[in-house]
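Board notes, transcribed. Complex of a protein with iron/sulfur cluster.
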Amino acid sequence: MTCPYLAYRESADGASFDEARAYCEAAERFVQPMRADICNDRFDLDHAEDCEIYLDHAGDGDESDGRGEGDDA
Ligand code: SF4
């Protein structure tokens, strides 16, 4: 699952690009390539644990993750 704040935009905030780039709607800015791995939960990363921006916003009452599953180790 990718981060619910992740979007792809060709332009925002005065910057524009030829192709859509990862954009964080929580931080309202384009995402650095290294952080995009967190946004997309690539490798063993998890936006819900590894992104302080997400954690900051998720604590603001927009919690929509399903708890109670995922113990598949
Ligand atoms: S930077 Fe954090 S909050 Fe923003 S889209 Fe990526 S994982 Fe989500």
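The chain is about 25% helix and 25% strand. Helices lie at 33-39, 47-50, 52-58.
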